[in-house]
Design the sequence.
């Protein structure tokens, strides 16, 4: 499987790529506590074998892509936990290395699997739920200084692509998109949304318009959002960017930034997947609340 870019959703050229699910969910299913400021990134230092097991489980469930445990990994976060900058960059790169090793283990039976290096928003490292609010109140220079080093570290580790995900705010999107164009690594870009707006309250058409024409992007869309909001975001992404869409909702509910848990989750309505595909989604998976069994069911529906 290759990372490809196409224009328009109606041509049907690009095959479906099944993404994995929530790293935190797969780790919790192993009995791991993933709370704390570093969330799943803690295991990059403490228990990397657990992360490898999660990647392996998602591949076995039918995923084509392993998304690294780097969503909440940053120099700022690791240094706040007592590590120096060099160790922080090493751990960020380790996230990619772990996924690549698992991918290579599976290559004989499933060639063409991919590694996507997760790039979470600035709000993720704050640990206060602001990845679902945006409007951080910081200068764009701070956002650039935050994202630049981690993007460079992830790119150095050799992923197949970058997964820029759960971005709540088009102002942050503009900063990240410019940084992506400085790197020679393909990427998908997905917002967190509510209804017809980003989580920060900007119209989706405007939010996706800032991604149009970016040479690094292979897909744009939505993640970690309610399943009922996915179709509108997919349609807006395709209309504004001309790219295939990426779609991987969460299991619903409310995020508690103190306990780092979701409440009131519900099963995915797999009947919705057909409409996402018809609208142009070509990268489909799950986010928080989706374990390997959920990805297996989603893959069966999408491929069927």
Sequence:
């Amino acid at each position: 499987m290759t990372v490809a870019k196409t224009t328009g959703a109606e041509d049907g050229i690009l095959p479906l790529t099944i993404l994995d699910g929530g790293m935190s969910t797969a780790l919790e299913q192993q009995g791991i506590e993933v709370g704390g400021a570093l969330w799943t990134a803690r295991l990059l230092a403490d228990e990397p074998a657990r992360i490898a097991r999660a990647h392996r489980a998602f591949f076995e469930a039918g995923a084509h892509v392993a998304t690294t445990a780097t969503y909440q990994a940053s120099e700022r976060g690791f240094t706040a936990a007592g590590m120096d900058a060099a160790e922080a960059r090493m751990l960020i790169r380790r996230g990619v290395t772990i996924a690549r090793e698992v991918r290579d283990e599976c290559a004989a039976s499933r060639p063409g699997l991919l590694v996507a290096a997760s790039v979470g928003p600035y709000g993720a490292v704050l640990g206060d739920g602001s990845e679902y609010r945006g409007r951080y109140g910081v200068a764009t220079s701070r956002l650039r200084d935050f994202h630049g080093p981690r993007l460079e570290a992830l790119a150095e580790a050799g992923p197949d692509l970058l997964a820029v995900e759960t971005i709540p705010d088009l102002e942050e999107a503009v900063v990240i998109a410019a940084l992506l164009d400085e790197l020679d690594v393909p990427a998908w870009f997905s917002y967190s949304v509510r209804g017809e707006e980003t989580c920060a309250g900007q119209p989706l058409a405007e939010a996706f318009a800032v991604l149009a024409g970016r040479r690094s992007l292979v897909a744009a869309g939505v993640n970690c959002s309610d399943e009922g909001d996915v179709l509108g975001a997919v349609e807006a992404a395709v209309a504004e960017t001309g790219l295939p869409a990426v779609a991987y909702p969460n299991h619903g509910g409310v995020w508690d930034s103190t306990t780092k848990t979701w409440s009131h989750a519900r099963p995915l309505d797999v009947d919705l997947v057909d409409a996402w595909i018809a609208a142009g989604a070509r990268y489909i998976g799950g986010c928080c609340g989706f374990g390997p069994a959920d990805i297996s069911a989603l893959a069966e529906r999408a491929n069927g």
Observations:
- The radius of gyration is 17 Å.
- The chain has a mean pLDDT of 90.
- The domain at 17-303 is CATH 3.20.20.330 (TIM Barrel).
- The longest strand covers residues 161-167.
